[in-house]
Design brief:
Elements (H helix, E strand, L loop, with lengths): L1 H28 L2 E6 L1 H7 L15 H6 L2 E9 L8 H18 L4 E3 L3 H9 L3 E8 L10 H7 L2 E5 L23 H13 L2 E3 L5 H10 L5 E2 L16 H10 L2 E4 L3 H4 L1 H24 L4 H16 L8 H14 L4 E3 L19 H9 L4 H24 L1
Parallel strand pairs: 1-2, 2-4, 3-4, 4-5, 5-6, 7-8, 8-9
Helix pairs in contact: 1-14, 2-4, 7-15, 11-12
């Protein structure tokens, strides 16, 4: 009897091991692409070296290898406190990424096209790309897009949590505002360059306006489903269907606050207290960026420990919902590593195979998993390149 009980306990563990083993094998065959990591902030402010395993944060080359990651879009995010010198700060972050690519050339290579990603992956290296998070970075000058594109930027999020003069954001008083004439020109210019248009963070009217203007598929580089977590940063089912009709892709965000309504509600209660302490830290360490970055991360983790973190399976709930609404050809991964608090179990990039294992558990076939892991994003990138050619 005791042997039977032990056997019943061991069998599920064995099944879990087999799923994870299959997941890791799929990662070796697929090109796993993550469209959003805020790691450039750590590269610039903390002097992070991607080549060394870090005890902090979510991403470095050793852990990228363990997670089977094939390509990473490094986010060029400029905080509002850098006003009015958004572009100068953005250029510094781009420089920090390019420095790492040069330093770790045996493992990392800058990709400018979808074909580059495939070639770099075939060579056994990881492709590095960049996306600018927030149109405020171009300082109301669409010509800056040309410079950013030449430096390797392959998407721009039209807004961050702050609206621009030409586009409304989901994160402030511009929530009911869409694209202005200049905003429509920005989208058109991105299309001509072959730069993907990213609608994460934008207001609902901006989303619909961008959809009308664009000649190429849109991406949501790091967004979840509003039907599962009612947050203005997330996509409604109508948006998911429209994005699919446009040929675009919704890259699912891993941030606990966009995944789970219970976490978001608990976080809201602590928001004012957290923001007060965060502003104090910024003021205290404004002349020491490295210390400021570490202290802010410590504070964030301190508050996160008081909140009901969802399990990583919640990410797959959102993937599953997006697949059911938009179709399996229009869903991908946009982690928000090094920029957001992760759910339980998904501690860093090395844990990515857990998502694939969960997809397998839910009955997803390997060809469809490969689409979600990166093939869908590659298709959209190729279509953006073709739109530029036209």
């Amino acid at each position: 009897m005791r042997f039977l009980v032990l056997l019943l306990m061991v069998l599920p563990l064995h099944a879990e091991d087999e799923l994870l083993k299959r997941a890791k094998e799929i990662h070796r065959r697929a090109i796993v692409i993550d469209t959003h990591a805020d790691t450039p902030l750590r590269l610039l402010d903390e002097g992070l070296d991607l080549g060394a395993r870090s005890k902090e944060g979510h991403l470095d080359l050793p852990r990228m290898r363990e997670g089977g990651l094939g390509a990473e879009f490094f986010s060029i995010y400029v905080a509002p406190r850098f006003a009015p010198h958004f572009l100068a700060r953005g250029m510094a972050e781009i420089g920090a990424v390019l420095d790492q690519v040069e330093k770790h050339g045996r493992e990392l290579e800058l990709a400018r096209t979808a074909a580059d990603i495939r070639r770099i992956h075939a060579a056994g290296k990881i492709a590095a790309l960049m996306g600018v998070e927030g149109g405020h970075t171009i300082e109301n000058d669409p010509r800056v897009l040309d410079v950013l594109y030449r430096m390797g930027v392959r998407y721009m999020t039209l807004t961050w949590a702050i609206s621009t003069d030409w586009a409304g954001s989901s994160g402030d008083s511009g929530r009911n505002r869409g694209l202005s004439a200049m905003g429509r020109d920005v989208v058109a210019r991105m299309n001509r360059l072959g730069m993907m248009v990213d609608i994460s963070h934008v207001s609902d009217p901006t989303f619909w306006d961008a959809l009308k203007v664009t000649r190429a598929p849109l991406i949501a580089s790091h967004s979840c489903c509003r039907a599962l977590c009612d947050h203005p940063r997330n996509l409604t089912d109508d948006m998911l269907r429209a994005l699919a009709k446009n040929g675009g892709v919704a890259q699912i965000n891993f941030y606990s606050g966009f995944l789970d309504g219970g976490y978001a509600a608990a976080q809201k209660k602590l928001e004012a207290q957290y923001e007060t302490e965060d502003k104090q830290l910024i003021g205290k360490w404004k002349d020491d960026p490295a210390r400021m970055s570490r202290e802010r991360r410590r504070l964030e983790n301190q508050y996160d420990a008081r909140l009901p973190r969802p399990s990583f399976e919640r990410i797959v709930d959102h993937i599953d919902h997006a697949v059911k609404v938009a179709g399996v050809d229009h869903v991908g991964l946009g982690s928000d590593f090094d920029g957001a608090l992760m759910p339980r179990g998904l501690d860093d990039v090395s844990k990515l195979p857990l998502i694939t294992a969960e997809l397998l558990r839910r009955g997803y076939r390997e060809p469809d998993i490969i689409k979600i892991l990166g093939a869908n994003l590659l298709r959209v990138m190729e279509q953006a390149e073709k739109a530029a050619g036209r």
